[in-house]
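Researcher: Predict the fold of YkgJ family cysteine cluster protein.
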Amino acid sequence: MVNYLTFEEIQEKCEKLQDVYEIDEEKFYHIVEKWANEKTTIEQKLVASFSELLQQVSDEITSMEESVDMQATCRMGCAFCCYFPIIINEMEAKLMQKSIANFPAERKRKIQQHLSRYYEKYGEKLDQITAINFEEDENFKYKYRKSLVPCPLLNTDTNKCMAYEIRPIPCRTYMNYTDPKVCEQDVMPKETISFEFLYGEYMGALNEFLQFLVEEGDTGFIEYPNDVYAHNYLAIWLKESFHEGVN
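Model: Structure tokens for YkgJ family cysteine cluster protein follow.
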């Protein structure tokens, strides 16, 4: 029988984490500094920096877990968290879109076909739940989650993300360290925790890189800083890019 951490034990470890762990910000800034000096296109610099910064967020979580002896109970194929609303800014949306555009042709084709079926199936329901004002309605996550509309990038046949390596910060920082059943039994489980505070280091490094590109006179496909301040549901951003891609 597996002995999962209790809610109280998770809280204690999170409190301990604040005392024993310090985020290494330099690792984030080293990534963008490295790509700023690479002899390649602006698009490649942006996409590569984005991908490596996301991975650094995941690596940082792993280091934190090791420092307080925590092990996530999240497993491949467990996708209850993939029904939460994901809010990202337009810069992140464009970086995701460009990353997907650089996927191998067959993988891109499968994603496009999947999105076509997805928006045909959930279009009307999506219109309703994405009309919820996420900036003003403090219960928007609960309202969205209980609608049972999956993320556009979730393959519901396999319960796997179709763009896992570029999943945004809210996805990769939401973790469960107790019995996985809590995610199945509760729409908004209290036992899960989020490392979303790492967004500060991730976005800080991206911003610094874009500021460097502004000084160089070319920010590529990013309209900076406007894209940073425009926020919306991931489902909306992907819908827009999907329609642009098929027209």
